[in-house]
Amino acid sequence: MKTTDQTARIIIRPLREEDLPGFVEVDYRQTGKRREAYWRDRFAHFTRRHPLSCLVAEMEGVGVVASVLGDVRGWEFGVPEGTGWIEGINVRPDLQGTGIASRLLDQLLGYFRQAGVKRVFSVVDWEQEEAIGLFRSHGFRRGDFIAFEKKL
């Protein structure tokens, strides 16, 4: 894991509406797509339900450099209410591998514990080796569900 003086100046805090531009910029650096309208809608959804499960990493003098979006809910297929969900973790590409995602995940898991969550789910693409490694390093294992997909 690489560390820098910059990453020492990072604070983890709950997501705020005014974080949208920085959040969109991190997403753009990850995906190459500007999706402001999409994220504006998602912000509203997440911050209404469980605002402490939506976190950003903010670097002094720079702004938002990473985020994690979580939720507490049930789901179809017999998943009970009160289940934790990690919708996504985004870290600026130039800061990946510095431990920021791990710090975000640790704080989110702490919130889930305080909220009484006993089980946490996330979905990761098979080719995202770094994300798989991150989850495994935090005790996650492959779950019981199989995702099916059909291209139309």
The average pLDDT score comes to: 88
Q: Uncertain spans, ≥5 residues at pLDDT below 50?
A: none
- The number of helical elements comes to 5
Distance between the termini: 40 Å
Strand order of the largest sheet: 1-2-3-4-5
CATH class: Alpha Beta
Named CATH architecture: 3-Layer(aba) Sandwich
At the fourth CATH level, what is the homologous superfamily? Gcn5-related N-acetyltransferase (GNAT)
Explain the overall architecture.
This protein is of the alpha+beta class. The protein has a single domain, classed as Aminopeptidase (3-Layer(aba) Sandwich), CATH 3.40.630. It has helices at residues 5-8, 20-31, 36-49, 100-114, 129-137; strands spanning 10-14, 54-59, 63-73, 83-91, 120-122. Helix 2 crosses helix 3. The mean pLDDT is 88.
Short description:
The protein has helices spanning 5-8, 20-31, 36-49, 100-114, 129-137; strands at residues 10-14, 54-59, 63-73, 83-91, 120-122. The protein is α+β, with helices and mostly antiparallel strands and 152 residues long.
Which features does this protein show?
152 residues; alpha+beta; Aminopeptidase; five-stranded mixed beta sheet; 5 helices
Topology of helices and strands:
Blueprint: H1 5-8, E1 10-14, H2 20-31, H3 36-49, E2 54-59, E3 63-73, E4 83-91, H4 100-114, E5 120-122, H5 129-137
Parallel strand pairs: 4-5
Antiparallel strand pairs: 1-2, 2-3, 3-4
Helix pairs in contact: 2-3
